[in-house]
Amino acid sequence: MLGADFILDCLIKEGINHLFMVPGGLIDPFLPALGRQNTLTPIVAAQEGGAAYMADGYARASGKWGAALCIGGPGLTNTVTAVATAKTDGSPLLVLSGEAATAIEGLGMFQDASSLSLNDVDILKSVTRFSSSIDNPQNLHHLFRHAMIHLRTEPAGPVHLSIPTDSQVATIHATYKPLSLDLIHARVLSLEGAKTTLNHFIKGPDGSAPVRIVILAGAGVEHAEGATLLRQFAERWHIPVATTLRAKGIFPEDHSLSLGVFGYAGTHHSRMAILDNPPDLLILLGSGLNERDTMHWTLKMTPQNTICVNLDTLAMGVHLVGSAIVGDAGAYLAWLVDQTEMIKPALESTIAGRKKWLSSILTQPRLQNSQDCNSSAIPIHPARVISELRHVFPRDGILLVDSGAHRAFAGHYWTSYDPLTYISATNLGPMGWAIPAAIGVQCAQPTKKVAVITGDGCMHMQGIEIATAARYQLPIIYVVINNAALGNVWLRAHTEGPVPNALTILPDLDWAGFSIALGGEGITVSHPDELAQAFSTALKNKGPTVIDVKADKRCVTPVQDWSAACASWSYQE
């Protein structure tokens, strides 16, 4: 088969059913190739960055990976932010770019971005796990396999292949075989390291069995598909669970053992359990230990009271954690479940004390300014928007949250019940990411309701992809918290004088009308009592609906505990 057909066949064999793309001359051979198969559905984005964001969303919602196709040069450079976002969040994204034929590289061909010109491969190397060019059609098979291994084995991340046009049209005689599941889910765990943690469950810092035990679950638990094991272990020993914002939903937030999110936009419950009076034992599973996961690095991790499990040895080494275990969070949880008889005497004897301690926390307010969820203020309070959407949105629906002040409101006030139902690019935080990413999510989960919480600043950047959602009649609900400002920035800047204030103000555009112009539906909401009906109407629509909510930019984000931690932290400590 031809090279383009070979690539598509590889995608199909690896279980992918959507390809997000922007056509262009350097990938012309892929267009008829797409017509020669009936498994992959091509989704044409408005811009290459949008296509890559869509593939990222597809990867996160499917639990597999996503693929984007574009031309090299200007097409590929448009994807760089999306690829960097996937890298920082550990999202498996394959970017395929077309390139000038190898025989004419460096001769000045239009859009040549080969190694003798712009060098696409080098541009992508710093933001991928693997970036390479097919320098000979005979290398296509094994270099694609190299890319798959880097893409699909932990720690996950994006990869890039540049495919010159001669490789796209060459006859490929190789037969591709999908990667073994044993490679994809290796369940790596240092058993010697794991064994050293058993004593933590038997003897606390004061020599007695630990009573106050907390689990802080990060994205590594999601990557390891360890949610069921996490819940099983927590329930068996009545251990409360907090999650990072990136892992929100990995543990049901209406569960009696849930502390909610810890870190940025976190709950009072998680702060009280983890920071106010550090627990006898903190079990950190799959957290990147970054600023937001650790409450601006105020989280104290000592050998006496911390078990940290992570595949990233650098993160653990830099932050000088307690008992550092190199391994997959899911593998460690499975191993712990197998140690039941060993840890049973100590943990069972402390359940009553743990229940009493947890009860003393849960009787305190969980959220900051929870009354804002019922606010009747005009312009509308963002907390009221989040609360009203949660009331009508299906329990198993998927919410994507963009970057801006609305991220804090959604992270704090939204209740998540299942893994992969709260999706956000939390580490790099590119504005507008969620708008195209939702298209990938809807393609990966066609039977689920999908909604986006975004802002007018984000719409300025990626709003054109509403046209893509309309083109393919994807029933995504886009809730634009339109405060006519770059919200988070304005909250800081407007206190600095009239010029900073003016620079962070945006025109109050008609985003509902914008959606209608692009082929979608649009609803404008100016009064909080109109929210419920708008959401109910949008849930019934067959294509995308943009709900333009006229919101108040003056509302302070619910990050009280975060701000206090930032104020108290010192690099010298």
Itemize the secondary structure elements and their pairings.
Elements (H helix, E strand, L loop, with lengths): L2 H11 L4 E4 L8 H6 L5 E4 L3 H15 L3 E6 L2 H4 L2 H10 L3 E7 L20 H6 L4 E4 L6 H13 L6 E6 H5 L11 H4 L6 H6 L1 H5 L10 E5 L1 H5 L3 H11 L3 E3 L14 E4 L6 H9 L4 E5 L20 E5 L2 H6 L4 E4 L2 H10 L1 H10 L1 H12 L19 H11 L5 E4 L3 H9 L8 E3 L9 H11 L5 E6 H7 L3 H6 L5 E6 L4 H7 L4 H6 L7 H7 L3 E5 L5 H10 L4 E6 L9 H9 L5
Parallel strand pairs: 1-2, 1-3, 3-4, 4-6, 5-6, 7-8, 7-10, 8-9, 10-11, 11-12, 13-14, 13-15, 15-16, 16-18, 17-18
Helix pairs in contact: 3-5, 3-21, 13-16, 19-20, 19-27
Helical amount: 40-55%
Count the helices. How many? 28
Distance between the first and last residues' Cα: 62 Å
- The parts where pLDDT drops under 50 for at least 5 residues are none
Beta content: 15-25%
What does the average pLDDT come to? 94
The largest sheet has its strands arranged as 2-1-3-4-6-5
The tally of domains stands at 3
What is the CATH architecture annotation of the largest domain? 3-Layer(aba) Sandwich
Q: Taking Cα atoms only, what radius of gyration do you get, to the nearest Å?
A: 25 Å
The CATH topology name of the largest domain reads: Rossmann fold
Characterize the biggest β-sheet. Answer: 6 strands, parallel
CATH class of the largest domain: Alpha Beta
CATH level-four homologous superfamily name of the largest domain: Thiamin diphosphate (ThDP)-binding fold, Pyr/PP domains
- The secondary structure category is alpha/beta
What is the overall silhouette? globular
Number of strands: 18
Commentary on this structure:
The protein is α/β, with parallel strands linked by helices and 573 residues long. The protein has three domains: 3-174, Rossmann fold, CATH 3.40.50; 191-362, 3-Layer(aba) Sandwich (Rossmann fold); 370-560, Thiamin diphosphate (ThDP)-binding fold, Pyr/PP domains (Rossmann fold, 3-Layer(aba) Sandwich), CATH 3.40.50.970. The protein is 40% helix and 15% strand. Strands 2-1-3-4-6-5 form a six-stranded parallel beta sheet, with helices on both faces. Strands 9-8-7-10-11-12 form a six-stranded parallel beta sheet. The radius of gyration is 25 Å and the shape is globular. The model has no long low-confidence stretch (mean pLDDT 94).
